[in-house]
Amino acid sequence: MKLENLEEQNRVFALFKGDPKTGKDIAAHSFALAGPLYSMDLDARMESVKYFYTKVLPRPDIIANIEYDRFTDFFEIHRKLEELKVSCPYETIILSSLTSLGRKAMNTMLNTRDAATAQKKNRGGIILHVVEDFGGEANAIMMTLDALMVISLKFNVNVIMTAHIIDPGPGAYRPTRTLLTGGKKIAAEIPVSFNEAYHFYVKTSGGMEMSSDDDLSRRYEVHTRSIGTDWASTALALPDRIDFTDKLLYEEIMKHMKKEE
Questions:
Q1: What is the CATH number of domain 11-259?
Q2: pTM over 0.85
Q3: Domain segments of the chain: what residues?
């Protein structure tokens, strides 16, 4: 293939990461403005998404454009991705979250162990994880990422995966916060798969100790480039920081993109 024949595709393969309750899922589902959106709701967050776009920032157009499913194990997730590799009528696919994906993969392996192995690997009646389980988690995550990449490239679809982060351990060689997964190696490999990686956080100001939450001012922001211990990156013409408080992140991104045209 010749590079000069490569057509530009208007899609993102993005990782939305940050601490819990920093607006990752709300921001991701704003991409329903681009067209039909399918959400793989592993974290059971759709109630909060519906509440936000119904009560906080009413947008019936976004609600109407979202379909979702919930999954009990990794086998169900894999089957759905195989279906989407054949036919994908959506403009955006969301998987929320990476942390729950890893947990469902681990639980699936526990549930499929034979009785003899399960009996050996338990303590007080609780089945324990073994080293091989973390290798299985890594394989399950990479299988999922590979399938999402195939779908994204084949159908020119946006893909967004959300993820939680953890602080570096004491004495860490690289004091950066990493993704929350069972295995450390896979947590370091995952970011390479994405062409966009945004860090979400809540900026608070005002208020005093023992005061009510009403005294606090909260701003929901996203970093598109690394700052301090939190890494991020973008290949788009975006500012280093975007404030999406009571706004739609998708619209804010499109505004900056149009400025560069």
A1: 3.40.50.300
A2: no
A3: 11-259
